[in-house]
Structures are given as C-alpha cells and as structure tokens.
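batch job 7 of whatever, protein = 6-phosphogluconate dehydrogenase, decarboxylating
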Amino acid sequence: MNAAAANIGVVGLAVMGSNLARNLASREGNTVAVYNRSRTKTDELVQAHPEAGFVPAFSYEEFAASLSKPRTAIIMVKAGGPTDAVIDELVKVFEPGDIIVDGGNAYFPDTIRREKAVRETGINFVGAGISGGEEGALNGPSIMPGGSDESWVTLGPILKSIAAVADDGEPCVTHIGHDGAGHFVKMVHNGIEYADMQLIAEAYDLIRRGTGRTPAEIADIFAEWNTGELESYLIEITAEVLRQVDAETGKPLVDVILDQAGAKGTGAWTVQTALSLGVPVSGIAEATFARSLSSHPEQREVARVLPGPGTEFQVDDADGFVEDVRQALFASKIIAYSQGFDEIRAGAAEYNWTIDLGAVSKIWRAGCIIRAQFLNRIADAYAEQPELPVLATAPYFADALTRGQAAWRRVVIAATQAGIPSPAFSSSLAYYDGLRADRLPAALVQGQRDFFGAHTYKRIDKEGTFHTLWSGDRTEIEAEDTH
Ligand code: 6PG
C-alpha cells in the first residue's frame, strides 16, 4: 500500500480506540492508519481484523508518513498526561493544516489550553466528545467535536461516516463550536447522564421499598415505561440490570452489588462548572453527591444509629404509586435536562462559543448514553423557539409538568415521610418551585448580608442600591453597589 494511503489515523488501541478504528475502517472511503505505544496491540488489531485494511505504524514518523494531507489523527488514550504526551509527539511529525483530535473525556479547560498551544504551530487541535461506550465506538457513537472551522471541513465527513444515525437519517455529529466547546458539551452530557441514572435509581428504590415488588417485577415496570414518554437507553438497560440473576448466589444481581457508586469525574466537572457559571444544576449535583455519599461507608456505618420514621413504608395503592413514581421521574428528568441545557447556554456565553442547542439535542437522539425519544421533543422545542430561555417552559414540557406535578409532590412527600432518600426527585421539585415562585426568601438573605457585611440590596419599588445603618439609627441610605 503506498506510503500516504490513509485518510484518518487512530492513536491508542485499547478497546475504545480499536473499536473506533474498526468503525472508521468499515466505512466507504476510509483507510485507517493505526498506532499504539506498545506494538503488541497494533499487531493484534491488524491480525484480528484483516478485512479492515489497517495501515499499521510502529513509530510516530511512520504514522505521519502513512497519512494523506491534511493529516488527521484521533487520539484515544487516557485523559490528562497520556493525552498531552501523544499531542507532543504528533506535533513533532505533523505540519500546519494537519488535524489532531482528542477523542477522550478531557476537561474542557484543558482542551482550550491545548487548542491554543497547538494552533500556534499551525496545526488544528480538536477536542471531540465521543459518547456511547465501547459499543458506540464500534457501531456508531454520538460525537461532539469542537475545534476550528478549517478542521471541520476535513473532519466533518469522516465523523459523519461513523456516527450513529437518528431515526430521521441524520448523523449524530455536528460541529459544536470552537476550541473546547465539544468537550464542554460532552461534559454536560455526562452530567445529565448522572442525573438520569440517579432519578431512575430513586424510582427503583421507592417502588421496591414502597410496594415490595422484586427486581424482576420492577424490570417489567421499566420495560413498560420504555414504551412511552420515558423511552431511553438508560431505562432499557435498567430493566436488563434488574432482571439479571447472580449465577453464584441465585439472588438478583442488584442485591449482591455493593451500594457504593463510582465516578470518573465528569459529573463533578459539570457541577463545578455550573457553580462558576451561576447555573443551578440541582439534579446533576444531587446525583453526583449521592455517589459521594454512597462511597463513605465509614460515615454511613456510624450514622445507622440516627433515628428514622420507624414505620414500615407500605403504600396502599401499589399500582397508583408506581404511576406516581413514573410521572415524578419524567418531571424530574425534564428539570435535569432543562438545567443541563441552561449550563450549555451559559458556557457558550462565557467562552464565546456559538452553540446551537437544537443541534446538540439532535445529535443526542442516538449513539450516546442519554439517547432517548425525549431528545426529539427537545429538538422540536428549540426548532420552535431557538432562544427558548427555559426548556421546561416549552409547551410539551410545561404540559407534562402540569400533568405530573401533583404525583411528583405525592412521591416526594411519601419518600420524605418514609425516610427514603430521594435527593434528585426532591431537589428537582424544589428547583421547579423556586423557578416559578413569585417571591423568594432571597430577599431575607439580602437583608442578612447587608446586616453583617453591608453588602447592600435593591428594592422592588425604586431604582438604586441601598444599605441600612444597622449598627446606628437603622436609617436606609443610598449606597454603592458592593454586590
Ligand atoms: C459515554 C459515557 C462515558 C463515561 C463512562 C464513565 O458518554 O460514553 O458517559 O464517557 O465516562 O460511562 O462515567 P462515570 O464513571 O463518570 O459514571
């Protein structure tokens, strides 16, 4: 095969990288160069998949020489140091106009830094979120690339050839925005994923403890829910996990799994970033904290002595409660997604990105972990109103919240009275009530802040900034706005 035969290259051939390389190679028009630091993986991949027509390279020089210009390579190694190391090597052998893509779960500020540094060499750097796990990488992920407009000219058609395809035939990839925009949106995707998973877990816990249904029976409930407005990959796999029986003990697998949830950090990034942007992401935050709480067995052990309601939680109308939980789950899910899209909008404003929220919702319809029919409704909402200030107020969602809020309240009340933790359900309801409140107790907070810190306050009845002389005669004066 001639030297510069490949139009795309992959560096890093662990499962995700290998699967992505195989996906690329399976598409018409792609010839794929592959490189891995340890040669064994390269040899194994090439030997295992002769049909792929891979162009193996055993040095970065060979890798560069095997790529036609503009050379385009996707890095699929661990985020952080390993990614930086590969970038440094590729910059040595690539030339201006070439394209380096980081396909890992990089933290978007790192991507902004890397894009700026690499751009100084004339080489394009693209941070691309790739969602869908190993199966998605092989058969069609949802892809969220950032980077320059120039890079998209070459990269766009290649990524479109491997992305998942939504029901309307559209590939689940779009040029999200410049520099770190792609990794920012992938980060929020993961945050929403955390909220979605936590809400489903709370729904399961409430039904199990409130109705005594078995995991297998609850699996049937989720399978039924998956035929309606809650249809999604996460609901589908939840039914499968709940149906699974542990071969060793014969018990439901979910009952032998240790109840301490791990996290690789993308949910935490989403919450930290939302805090810095001043965007409430209650569902995502509570989902992230719920994982943290579950992972403190030492505290949970000592806290067991603390009293609870003391009464056995048993609902009178099990079917009615299950339907209430379904409605509470859908309402809370709407809030979590509404907050996630709020964060994307705020991030775009902060980092000078132009991000089309409708386009983001459309590429999440297939391939990614949060894929769901629900995303079609979000796409419809942004198509109707691109500048929609609050997703939850779009007619479809407002109607669902109107229909579901009574059930939602009943579920949060029942969980509270039963002493069953439902942090995502209850924080989402609190956010909903806060958002629609005529008056918030923030007025009192302003008074407190002014009392101890002279931080001033505004008034509802006149312009200006005010401070009360609390330690003096308590008259009110006009003041400089000290925030
Ligand atoms: C995806 C997933 C993936 C995520 C892992 C681990 O979009 O394919 O979100 O990127 O990193 O599932 O996630 P946590 O360990 O943070 O739950």
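notes: The chain has a mean pLDDT of 96.
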